[in-house]
Amino acid sequence: MLALVTAVGGAAWVAVHMWVVRPLRQVNEATRAIGSGDFSARIGLMGGRAEVRELVSEVEAMAEELSGMYASLESKVAERTADLAATNEELKRANAMLAQSNEYKSQFLATVSHELRTPLTSVIAFADVLAAPPTGDETTRELASQVAANARTLLSMINDLI
Length: 162
Known about the structure:
Helix content: over 70%
Order of helices and strands: HHH
Number of strands: 0
Mean pLDDT: 85
Shape: rod-shaped
Largest sheet: none
Distance between the termini: 114 Å
Radius of gyration: 46 Å
Strand content: under 5%
């Protein structure tokens, strides 16, 4: 009787091991490989119960789907990286153009400042000389004084503008 129970128990163990445990180990190994990025991993089950074969089929279908999603994701990342590189190049060009425009603006302001202030300063100086008491008549001094005052106002406006 003991031999019969041992034999039946052993046969049951072998059957469970062959139909359930070994296929589940194969599924476990394949899912670990898939989890580490090897989407080509296949289980290659040679036997097992219908439920285990169904599980294997679902795991392999999941691996195929993950492989497609991973490839799609890689292409999207490459596309976005290329877009980002193109945008960065555009920004570099725009920044260079802004720097050049700023340089032109500085040159323009320096030129305008020099070209307007220099003659205006001379006008103010000569008007001050004409407005001085020992020279000319009263009308000339008064007009020269007005010219100097208006020239100073104009100089102030130019300075504010620049």
